[in-house]
């Protein structure tokens, strides 16, 4: 995360510079006083302005001030005044010998030096230059906005026994080299001296030999005292090589000093230490604190910092500490506190072959507290273990047994040999707990997946606003990255979430974000995280086609495209999170209605909830479905159609049946319903009916059938139940047409032109309420049979009328109407024998009396009777003859056969009726053909 990859916005630069300027001329502890300004163009003018200041003074280097100094420049400030030297952004080159500047302050004076670059001319191989500041008394010194570039000696040194404050801010040390301490040497000798360094960049500084000392970029010198705070600073690619007997501290080394060094919000990357002559002592790739005697109690406190890709040829790729105590009863003089920091990709070569501290090595009499740190992907070449946290114990001839001790809690360890548990044990840590390493080598990949949500966790900004390095535009800075932890993905997963005990962690994480407070548990590691989990699966929902995302803080975690473990919105604890941008797919027949605090019921969540480790559940409801109800209005039941989605069509059901009514369709709100109309609500359709006459019983009665050349002339029907309407009669397959019903009766009068073939014929009648049928009913009793038998199988009887006209009736009593009284005789042929019967007239001129029996028919009786009615229009007579004769021919009973015969006077006047096979009934009626009535 270099500045050329991550743009760090420099906010309030102008305002900060202005404030610094103002603060620089106010001496702490001094009342405000008169101030003056002076521009100097020579070294002598500068020296005079500093040493001769009697009031607070701002000294500005003028345009004519020499870039190459004529000699070593010495500045002395003793007066109780505040002097500010503004270099106007100039680059100064040293003289042939000596430093750029040697500054001494004393008494209660205050000196501020700013806006200068100290360098060598291009191509110079000079090994001199730099700045050295000696503080005495209570004087204060502030250095700001300085650059030390490419010097071949220690670029900046501090010394003196003064107790006043010293600050170094907004400055860069780039590409300097020296035997050791290529960028900065710290040697203040006061136990109460307080020094603050912030916003510094130390890049590519090299310690080349050291001659027994240490420190590639910076060394706190032997005998130094006081407190030194380095914060918001970047140590990048600094090295220390071949450092004599003590090649330690690629970036920073404390060597037999009693300084309490605090590193806060600092970034160490790519720093290293190595030695060809003493590889087993090349410890502390980034930081080394080495106390070879009990008289030195240099200690280290690290917080909110990052150590990435640092290397040590031996132990302690990030941090090495060694301390000693004169006796076992003496308290531990060397203290190590490491909290809220991240250690990643640091490499220990383990050149010594037996110590154990790959990332952090605590050697001998060191008391350590290692809390809430994240260790991942660090490596160590060999040794007894302790890839991340190791120890070295020994019994020395002078001081006896020396061993470290301490507490290790709430850290994240990711390797099977992360901790030298023989020394440290394990309290409560991810990957190391209950005094044993709890991760095997085979389990390491799963631990990474569970804890970080990815097999390749890496540093990321994770919404931090903190950066390390010189904040001036164009200078190198780095975002102080962290490694986001994943939410707890299952009940059996490794997790750093809410892992630590209440009260066992710092109040905030590496980024300054407050940890959860009781009753909620804080997280392990250097980053506090919270989340809201959105669960679509519990109620049958799903996602698909999502992009798997690593849980960068301030983003979301999706373990797979289906978010099968849930959709996590990951944030700082208590921070509002957005609802998912994609609604889950609802189970079939349902729709998504929102997020709720419980799988069923609960409270709907419609606004961004605060991240508190809660789960919200997707709830679904059935699609709105509708039912179409059919009200048959007294007809047969019609089932309702349910579960219709909005826009569906309902199929028209089978029409209901209702006696006495005709179904006219379905209506809604009085209007005929169109079944192509989409259903969008519950509706009821009502059957429409038209009343029809009740079912009518039609009785078929063939009361009078006249046979004319085999033609049915008339069929008389009686109709019950109605007095009007229409009758349609079918004889066999021939329709005889429709006739009106009058007073409950109907007469069918065919046209008499189509002969009937021999056979049996069904007569069927249908009733209609009008000429156009509205309803066809099964007609009870409306069928009859008229049969014609073949003559050749029967005994025949022929009757011939010799005079007059008329007809012969086949059965029943038929009244023939005449205009005149017929006379004549009847000739009877029975079984081929003829007999003549005279039709006698009575005194009124009608047929009457009993006729003589034909010859040869003994026992046969023939009766002829006659009657008439005289009125103004007609003279009616009836002649009836009965003849019983033996019958030859077919046997058995049955219906008779109608045959037609011819006659001399009236071809239509002859007929024969064979009524039964057992007896013969002959009914002869003579009549005119004018008309007939019943």
From TrEMBL:
Gene3D superfamilies: Listeria-Bacteroides repeat domain (2.60.40.4270)
Residue ranges of the TM segments: 12-31, 908-928
Keyword terms: Membrane, Transmembrane, Transmembrane helix
SUPFAM superfamilies the UniProt entry points to: Pectin lyase-like (SSF51126)
Subcellular localization: Cell envelope
InterPro entries, A to Z: InlB-like_B-rpt (IPR013378), Listeria/Bacterioides_rpt_sf (IPR042229), Pectin_lyase_fold/virulence (IPR011050)
Pfam family, any one: Flg_new
Broad class of where this protein is predominantly found: other
Coiled-coil features, chain-numbered ranges: none
GO cellular component terms attached to this protein's record: cell envelope
Superkingdom per UniProt: Bacteria
Name this polypeptide is given: Putative repeat protein (TIGR02543 family)
Organism: Klugiella xanthotipulae
Lineage: Bacteria, Bacillati, Actinomycetota, Actinomycetes, Micrococcales
């Amino acid at each position: 995360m270099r500045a050329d990859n991550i743009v760090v916005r420099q906010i309030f630069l102008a305002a900060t510079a202005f404030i610094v300027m103002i603060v620089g001329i106010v001496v702490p502890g001094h009342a405000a006083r008169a101030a003056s300004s002076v521009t100097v163009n020579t070294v002598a003018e500068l020296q005079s302005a500093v040493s001769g200041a009697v009031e607070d003074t701002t000294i500005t280097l003028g345009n004519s001030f020499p870039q190459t100094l004529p000699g070593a420049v010495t500045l002395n400030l003793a007066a109780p005044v505040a002097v500010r030297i503004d270099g106007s952004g100039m680059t100064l080159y040293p003289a042939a010998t000596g430093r750029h500047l040697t500054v001494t302050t004393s008494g209660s004076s205050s000196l501020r030096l700013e806006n200068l670059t100290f360098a060598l001319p291009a191509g110079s191989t000079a090994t001199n230059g730099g700045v050295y500041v000696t503080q005495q008394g209570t004087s204060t010194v502030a250095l700001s906005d300085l650059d030390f570039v490419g010097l071949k000696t220690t670029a900046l040194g501090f010394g003196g026994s003064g107790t006043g404050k010293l600050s170094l801010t907004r400055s860069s040390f780039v590409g300097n080299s020296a035997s050791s301490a290529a960028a900065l040497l710290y040697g203040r000798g006061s136990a109460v001296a307080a020094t603050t360094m912030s916003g510094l960049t130390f890049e590519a500084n090299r310690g080349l030999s050291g001659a027994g000392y240490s420190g590639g970029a910076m060394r706190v010198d032997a005998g130094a005292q006081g407190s030194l705070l380095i914060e918001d600073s970047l140590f990048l690619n600094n090295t220390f090589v071949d450092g004599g007997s003590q090649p330690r501290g690629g970036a920073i080394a404390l060597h037999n000093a009693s300084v309490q060094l605090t590193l806060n919000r600092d970034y160490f990357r790519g720093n290293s230490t190595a030695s060809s002559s003493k590889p087993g002592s090349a410890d502390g790739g980034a930081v080394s604190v080495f106390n070879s005697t009990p008289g030195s109690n240099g200690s280290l406190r690290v917080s909110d910092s990052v150590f990435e890709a640092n290397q040590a040829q031996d132990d302690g790729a990030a941090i090495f500490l060694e301390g000693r105590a004169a006796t076992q009863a003496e308290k531990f003089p060397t203290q190590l506190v490491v909290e809220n920091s991240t250690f990643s990709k640091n490499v220990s070569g383990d050149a010594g072959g037996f110590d154990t501290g790959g990332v952090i090595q605590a050697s001998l009499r060191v008391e350590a507290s290692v809390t809430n740190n994240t260790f991942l992907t660090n490596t160590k070449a060999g040794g007894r273990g302790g890839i991340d946290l190791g120890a070295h114990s020994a019994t020395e001839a002078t001081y006896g047994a020396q061993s470290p001790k301490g507490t290790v809690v709430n850290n994240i360890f990711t390797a099977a040999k992360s901790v030298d548990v023989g020394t440290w044990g394990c309290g409560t840590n991810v990957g190391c707990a209950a005094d044993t390493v709890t991760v095997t080598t085979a389990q390491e990949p799963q631990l990474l997946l569970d804890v970080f949500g990815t097999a390749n966790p890496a540093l990321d900004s994770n919404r931090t606003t903190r950066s390390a390095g010189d904040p001036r535009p164009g200078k190198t800075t780095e975002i102080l990255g962290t490694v986001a932890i994943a939410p707890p993905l299952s009940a059996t997963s490794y997790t750093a979430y809410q892992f630590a005990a209440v009260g066992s962690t710092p109040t905030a994480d590496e980024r300054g974000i407050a940890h959860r407070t009781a009753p909620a548990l804080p997280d392990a590691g250097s980053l506090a995280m919270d989340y809201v989990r959105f669960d679509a699966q519990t109620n049958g929902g799903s996602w698909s086609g999502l992009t798997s995302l690593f849980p960068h803080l301030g983003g979301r975690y999706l373990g797979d495209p289906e978010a099968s473990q849930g959709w996590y919105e990951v944030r700082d604890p208590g921070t509002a999170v957005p609802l998912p941008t994609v609604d889950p797919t609802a189970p079939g027949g349902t729709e998504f209605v929102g997020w709720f605090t419980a799988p069923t019921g609960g409270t709907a969540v419609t606004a961004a909830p605060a991240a508190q480790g809660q789960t919200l559940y997707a709830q679904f409801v059935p699609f709105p479905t509708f039912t179409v109800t059919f009200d048959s209005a007294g007809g047969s039941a019609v089932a309702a159609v349910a579960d219709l989605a909005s826009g569906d069509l309902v199929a028209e059901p089978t029409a209901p049946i209702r006696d006495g009514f005709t179904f006219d369709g379905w209506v809604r709100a009085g209007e005929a319903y169109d079944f192509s109309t989409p259903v969008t609500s519950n509706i009821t359709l009502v059957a429409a009916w038209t009343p029809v006459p009740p079912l009518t019983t039609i009785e078929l009665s063939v009361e009078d059938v006249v046979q004319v050349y085999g033609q049915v002339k008339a069929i008389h029907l009686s109709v019950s139940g109605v007095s009007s309407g229409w009758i349609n009669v079918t004889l066999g397959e021939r329709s005889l047409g429709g006739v009106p019903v009058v007073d409950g009766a109907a007469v069918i009068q065919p046209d008499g032109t189509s002969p009937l073939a021999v056979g049996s014929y069904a007569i069927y009648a249908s009733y209609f309420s009008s000429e156009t049928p509205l309803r066809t009913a099964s007609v009870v009793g409306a069928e009859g049979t008229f049969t014609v038998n073949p003559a050749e199988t029967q005994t025949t009887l022929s009757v011939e009328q010799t005079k007059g006209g008329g007809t012969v009736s086949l059965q029943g009593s038929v009244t023939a109407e005449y205009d005149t009284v017929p006379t004549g005789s009847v000739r009877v042929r029975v079984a081929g024998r003829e007999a003549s019967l005279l039709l006698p007239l009575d005194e009124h001129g009608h047929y009457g009396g009993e006729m003589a029996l034909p010859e040869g028919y003994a026992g046969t009786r023939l009766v002829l009777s006659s009657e008439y009615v005289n009125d103004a229009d007609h003279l009616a007579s009836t002649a009836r003859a009965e003849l019983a004769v033996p019958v030859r021919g077919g046997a058995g009973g049955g219906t008779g056969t109608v045959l037609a015969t011819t006659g001399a006077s009236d071809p239509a006047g002859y007929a024969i009726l064979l009524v039964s096979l057992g007896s013969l009934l002959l009914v002869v009626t003579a009549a005119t053909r004018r008309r007939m009535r019943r």
